[in-house]
Amino acid sequence: MPRFFARHAATLFFPMALILYDFAAYLSTDLIQPGIINVVRDFNADVSLAPAAVSLYLAGGMALQWLLGPLSDRIGRRPVLITGALIFTLACAATMFTTSMTQFLIARAIQGTSICFIATVGYVTVQEAFGQTKGIKLMAIITSIVLIAPIIGPLSGAALMHFVHWKVLFAIIAVMGFISFVGLLLAMPETVKRGAVPFSAKSVFRDFRNVFCNRLFLFGAATISLSYIPMMSWVAVSPVILIDAGGLTTSQFAWTQVPVFGAVIVANAIVAR
């Protein structure tokens, strides 16, 4: 039995750790969504800064994309993704000690870098470690689980805020991040031979130049990016519209997210068929 678990540790635990990391990363936005107005009020900040919590998270999510791919090709997937999980965990933990809106937003931007690590390194490692067929199935599972975060997050956040301060929500996410960090540390396989490709800034820029000269890539990237604008805009501004201006309670607000993101889940299921 011990040999079985040792032999299949990557198969059993690496995907689970990555799923938890991915879910926690998205939950860091969705769980606090009903309480973002409370955050602004606690820091005596202008309510117009509430959407910035999402905007800076997304800014963090694109800040390191250009670097992590080439870096993981040179030094390996493991150290890069594990470092990302640790950074995310520490950023969530640091949020509990913020004393101003500026500090909170900086922490949110750092939390957003988790998207870079997951999308650039985590998903690639799944494909490399499990092959095309199993990799596609695992990616489908990961996507399905992540899709429920916008529904579970606001409902759970609203329920928890009846009993705990909003900073405790980030403590919960930090615990999830730490568990995923330990899981990756113990079970993540290395799929790239370290040092096989020497790092060269010139080659990195050449690769990016070639990619950005590819019209098919540009069209696909633009289409996907533009399709997310309405949904992310809603995530950013809906608390201001419905809670601050509309007078909804956090619980009422959380339930308004169910039909919105329920429709997204249904649409994805239809497209998948």
TrEMBL record:
Keywords: Cell membrane, Membrane, Transmembrane, Transmembrane helix. GO terms for molecular function: sodium:proton antiporter activity. It is found in: Cell inner membrane. The keyword Nucleotide-binding does not apply. Its main location: membrane. The chain crosses the membrane at residues 48-68, 80-99, 105-126, 138-162, 168-187, 216-241, 253-272. It is a multi-pass membrane protein. Residues 14-273 form the Major facilitator superfamily (MFS) profile domain. InterPro entries: MFS (IPR011701), MFS_dom (IPR020846), MFS_trans_sf (IPR036259), Sugar_transporter_CS (IPR005829). The keyword 4Fe-4S does not apply. One of its GO terms (cellular component) is plasma membrane. GO terms for biological process: xenobiotic detoxification by transmembrane export across the plasma membrane. PANTHER family: MAJOR FACILITATOR SUPERFAMILY, MULTIDRUG RESISTANCE PROTEIN MDTM. This is MFS transporter. It comes from Escherichia coli.
